[in-house]
Amino acid sequence: MFELATLLAQITTDYGRMGIGLGIGLIIIGAGLGIGRIGGSAVDAMARQPEAGGRIQTAMIIAAALIEGATVIALVFSLLVS
Amino acid sequence: MFELATLLAQITTDYGRMGIGLGIGLIIIGAGLGIGRIGGSAVDAMARQPEAGGRIQTAMIIAAALIEGATVIALVFSLLVS
Amino acid sequence: MFELATLLAQITTDYGRMGIGLGIGLIIIGAGLGIGRIGGSAVDAMARQPEAGGRIQTAMIIAAALIEGATVIALVFSLLVS
């Protein structure tokens, strides 16, 4: 009976790890979609108005940094939860 | 019977952890889609009307900060729930 | 009975590993979508405004590096979780 309990505890622990692993992947999908959209639109915008390039680049970095910050927090929290 | 209860409690705890992990990933997918959409549209708007760039950037930061705030709260709550 | 326990413990261990493995794949899907979007838009933008090529390349590298940084952190954390 003790062995059964031990091994069932093992089952549950590893379902949790499955979720954490998939969650880390989803985090980067979110970050990639978000920063990718901003960066892609920024270079398109620079090509349309090259003289506004400095301002566009500043806006791109601000928005991308917001996503980057949340992403790193989420990754650290995933590690803490596991 | 006590052992069975203990191990079943363990099962549920770890299904929970699976959900927390997936939830953290979904949080960042939401934040990435949202801030990405705002940032992408903002740089497009700056290219179309460069003289309105300052106002556009302010609006972008306000909207993105609202998503960022909710995201950080959600991440902290995910950690508290686990 | 001991053999059954060993084998079931192995099953559970591998559910966790399955999640980590799929998660690593999702990480690269996210990074590929993001950096791919930025790089693709950057070369399109350069073709439209070749004289703005230097500025566009700078913006592309900044945005792609943000995704790359988060991706490497996520890959290392996946290894730590497993």
From TrEMBL, chains A, B, C:
InterPro entries: ATP_synth_csu_bac/chlpt, ATP_synth_F0_csu, ATP_synth_F0_csu_DDCD_BS, ATP_synth_F0_csu_sf, ATPase_proteolipid_c-like_dom, F/V-ATP_Csub_sf. GO terms for cellular component: plasma membrane; proton-transporting ATP synthase complex; proton-transporting two-sector ATPase complex, proton-transporting domain. The chain crosses the membrane at residues 20-38, 59-81. It is a multi-pass membrane protein. Residues 18-80 form the V-ATPase proteolipid subunit C-like domain. The keyword Transmembrane helix applies. Gene3D superfamilies: F1F0 ATP synthase subunit C (1.20.20.10). The keyword Transport applies. Its main location: membrane. One of its GO terms (molecular function) is proton-transporting ATP synthase activity, rotational mechanism. The record marks 68 as: Reversibly protonated during proton transport. It is found in: Cell membrane; Membrane. PROSITE patterns: ATPASE_C (PS00605). Keywords: ATP synthesis, Cell membrane, CF(0), Hydrogen ion transport, Ion transport, Lipid-binding, Membrane, Transmembrane, Transmembrane helix, Transport. Belongs to the ATPase C chain family. Key component of the F(0) channel; it plays a direct role in translocation across the membrane. A homomeric c-ring of between 10-14 subunits forms the central stalk rotor element with the F(1) delta and epsilon subunits. F(1)F(0) ATP synthase produces ATP from ADP in the presence of a proton or sodium gradient. F-type ATPases consist of two structural domains, F(1) containing the extramembraneous catalytic core and F(0) containing the membrane proton channel, linked together by a central stalk and a peripheral stalk. During catalysis, ATP synthesis in the catalytic domain of F(1) is coupled via a rotary mechanism of the central stalk subunits to proton translocation. This is ATP synthase subunit c. It comes from Crateriforma conspicua. The gene is atpE.
